[in-house]
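Before relying on records like the one below, remember that each one covers exactly one chain. Contacts with other chains, cofactors or solvent are not represented anywhere in the record.
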Amino acid sequence: DVVFGGIADRPAVEACYQAGVGKTIPLSIGATLDPYASKPVKVQATVKSLLDIADPAKREAAVQIQGITLILSAYRRPYHEIVDFTKMGIDPKSAKIVVVKSGYLEPQIKAIANPNLMALTDGSINQDIVHLPANKYRKPTFPFVDDLTFTPTVYTSARSHS
C-alpha cells in the first residue's frame, strides 16, 4: 500500500499510453535521465490511469506494481501537492506509505506525513553534499572541510564613505 510520485521516464510513459488503462505490460523503469549511475528496474506493471493530455512531453501515467502505485512522468517534475496525486485518481492520504522525490517536503505533503523521513540517494541530482567527490576547482568550504575555520574580510565600497 505504497504511493510513489514519481519517476521521470518518457519511454515508460509512452508504453503505458500505447497499452491503455487496465493492461498489464512489461516495463523498464528508470535510468533514462542518468544511465551512467543508475540501472533500470524491469517489472510487470498494470496501467491504472493516464493523464488526459495531448502533448506527449507532458504526459503522466500511474501504474500498479504489486503493492506499489507509481506515477511516471514524461518529464522531470516534483510531486509537491495533493493534486499531483488526485489528478491521477490517487488519494495519497489513504496510503500507508507515500514517497516523493524531493529535497524537502512542501506543506501539503508534510501535513500528511507521519512521520516524515528523508533518504539521500544517488541519481541525476545527488543532494548528499558531504559525500560528493572533491574537485580541483572547489574552494575549501563547509561541509566539505569539517574543521574549516573562516575569518571574514570586510570590504567597504567607496559609496559608504560619502
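The chain has a mean pLDDT of 89.
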